[in-house]
Amino acid sequence: MSNFFHVESISEAHHIFGLSKPKHPLVSLINRKNIQVNEDFYDVRCTLGMYYIANKSSAEGSMKYGRNSYDFQEGSMIFVKPGQVLSYDGQQSDMPEDGWILLFHPDLIRKSELGKTIENYSFFSYDITEALHLSDGEKQMLNELVTKIEKEYQQNIDRHSQKLIISNIELLLDYCTRYYDRQFYVRTNLNKDILAKFENLLKSYYANETQLSLGIPSVAYCGKTLNMSPKYLSDLLKKETGKNAKAHINNFLINKAKNRLLNSTTSISEIAYVLGFEYSQHFSKIFKSQTGMSPSAYREIN
Q1: Distance between CA atoms of residues 204 and 210, nearest Å
Q2: N or C terminus of the chain: which is more exposed, having fewer CB within 10 Å?
Q3: What is the pLDDT of residue 65?
């Protein structure tokens, strides 16, 4: 078999997991204990054509970020959206893991309100290392919701079925948003450490004149350097400071621009170049959006 393939349907996912045919073509709740991955799919990478939410009910040992242990080790969850890459190394545990996997195809929600808003659940773009860690109470709440989803598609389907399934998926995602907020809050000391590292990264970026070769720092660059996904970094900063990563970068750039405008006679275009902007018009646009005036007007009144 090719070492890379695309899983388009719930039925294909069931085949890979060694399960019988699904009860519903667009949604399935899988008990992790029942999974026996087909050997044909060992050591391969795949992209999913569906949403994948996995809950692991137990965690062995200590999960860490740097030298900091994660809280709520009773359970963890990861979220994968269509198009992301997954891989399986073929190692089966002697003891099957508790927990579940919820799969749902985009077609299930395409005409619903959730289909319009699901991109707002930014944790679908987090790395697996940025999992959601659950307390017992949180785990119980989510287990009850997925059980409702399973019961709904296992009984006789009627005109209410799809709406109720989607409503429970949306409620599940809303609770996960709340629990991620809690996770950011209880890790405030770790978050402050990351904030300091982020600010130092921006300072060193310009001290080393990296902007002359790579341009203005991007959220993707900062996230990669700090070993986290861009979405997670941005959400962490937003929870801690009220501003996302892009706003922090822009604020840093504007402060540097102000210093150069007031303490030199360097042209606007040269300042834009030194800051890493490819076009001076882009610099002027960002400066005006942040300050309410153009760079030249700012220089004149100050």
Answers
A1: 8
A2: C
A3: 33
pTM above 0.85, yes or no: no
Strand partners, 54: 78, 101
Pairwise CA distance, residues 7 & 23, whole Å: 18
Task: Return left, alpha or beta for 209; rule: phi > 0 is left, psi -120 to 50 is alpha, else beta.
Answer: left
* Encoded tokens for 79: 């979220």
Distance CA 299, CA 302 (A): 5
Q: 160 by DSSP, 3-state: which?
A: coil
Q: Tell me 139's DSSP state.
A: H
The answer to whether residues 199 and 113 belong to one domain is no
- Provide the token pair at 16: 């890979």
> What is the domain range of residue 119?
4-186
Q: Give residue-wise pLDDT tens across range 139-178.
A: 999 999 999 999 999 988 888 999 999 999 999 999 999 9
In the beta sheet, which residues pair with residue 46?
A: 5, 86
Hunting for tokens 């899983």 — which residue is that? 7
